[in-house]
Amino acid sequence: MSMSWRLASRLSVITMALLVVLIVALLSLRNTTGGSGSSSSTTSNALGLQGIDLGGSPAPGFQLTDQFGHTVSLAQFKGEPVIVTFMYTHCPTVCPLIAEKLHTAMQSLGSNAQKVAILVVSVDPKGDTQASALTFSEQHQMTDYWHYLTGTQNQLSPIWSAYAVDAQSISASTSMHTSVLYLIDKQGREQVLLDQNFTNSEMTTDLQKLLQA
């Protein structure tokens, strides 16, 4: 009963995020000039973080293998802020964009970047291998900043469900998935949810606050 309530709660959060993305897209169509864009993060939570408030619920644990072949679990980063997001290495659009934005945010943090954990969970168990995860990490200069985690369908699908991520294979090289980022505090609690439209300023400021909390 509690699991179904948790899933329903997470799905409502994702629905809210997708609605905000739609609003942002409509606003973008109305703007004919260029610009830095606008993120969906229009609210702040109890810690002053920008994003959709997740209420401090414990983040679901998981364990997978990263781009170096090392076993990595969410639990091992207790005491550090954590970003959990979802990608696939052959993604032509959104995933590379998020990777580049995360790289920019890590550069903005300077030496504090090494105090933040980024866990990327694959949404393509067939196409994402340890080798492709390493190549993708190198291409976006994130090798030293994140753990790109791969696994089998049986290993990954429970994690997608726990984080209310819809992942579907469209073809051998294309997947469709929910593009969100969970910001988790040092105690392993979900604080806010961001979508792909987050700005460098929002991400950097949120992480700085989590580092100080």
What report would you give on this structure?
This protein has 5 helices and 10 strands, in the order αββββαβαβαββββα. The longest helix is centred in the N-terminal third of the chain and has 29 residues, at about 1-30. The termini are far apart. Residues about 1-10 and about 10-40 have low confidence and may be disordered. β4 (about 80-85), α2 and β5 (about 115-120) form a beta-alpha-beta unit. It has about 210 residues and is α+β, with helices and mostly antiparallel strands. The chain has a single domain (about 1-210), classed as Glutaredoxin (3-Layer(aba) Sandwich), CATH 3.40.30.
Topology:
Blueprint: H1 2-30, E1 52-53, E2 63-65, E3 71-73, E4 82-87, H2 94-109, E5 117-122, H3 130-139, E6 146-149, H4 153-162, E7 167-169, E8 175-177, E9 180-184, E10 190-195, H5 200-212
Parallel strand pairs: 4-5, 5-6
Antiparallel strand pairs: 1-10, 2-3, 4-9, 7-8, 9-10
Helix pairs in contact: 2-5
Produce a short descriptive summary:
With 213 residues, this protein is of the alpha+beta class. Helices cover 37% and strands 19% of the residues. The termini are far apart.
Mean pLDDT across residues: 83
Order of helices and strands: HEEEEHEHEHEEEEH
- Under CATH at level 1, the class stands as Alpha Beta
| Total domain units | 1
| Alpha-carbon distance between the two ends | 33 Å
Q: Going by CATH, what is the homologous superfamily? A: Glutaredoxin
Q: Enter the CATH topology name.
A: Glutaredoxin
Number of strands: 10
Estimate percent helicity: 25-40%
Total helices: the number is: 5
Proportion in β-strands: 15-25%
Return the CATH architecture. Answer: 3-Layer(aba) Sandwich
Shape: globular
- Give the neighbour order of strands across the main sheet: 1-10-9-4-5-6
Uncertain ranges: 1-9, 11-41
Structural class, from secondary structure content?
Answer: alpha+beta
Largest sheet: 6 strands, mixed
Rg is 16 Å
